[in-house]
Amino acid sequence: xxxxxxxxxxxxxxxxxxxxxxxxxxxxxxxxxxxxxxxxxxxxxxxxxxxxxxxxxxxxxxxxxxxxxxxxxxxxxxxxxxxxxxxxxxxxxxx
Length: 95
Known about the structure:
Helix content: 25-40%
Pfam families: RemA-like
Mean pLDDT: 81
Organism: Phascolarctobacterium succinatutens
Largest sheet: 4 strands, mixed
Strand order of the largest sheet: 3-5-6-4
InterPro entries: RemA-like
Shape: globular
Number of strands: 7
Radius of gyration: 13 Å
Protein name: DUF370 domain-containing protein
């Protein structure tokens, strides 16, 4: 299944390594991670210019999203029940 990150970006649930909350006082974990490993990743703005609330990390990409980390986590766990995650077949039908 795929998780919608905002605008036109979706990521395979199985490729997600971490979801960082960027608006939490303890987001120093994200800051430390970016300082140490940030140059290894392609950075994609999936916010549509609405500001960043979360960062979704995959093997090679950091997606900056305007959707909160809590919402993304819920969507990933509940699947396509709320329309935020899609099966492979649903994506092919939309093309």
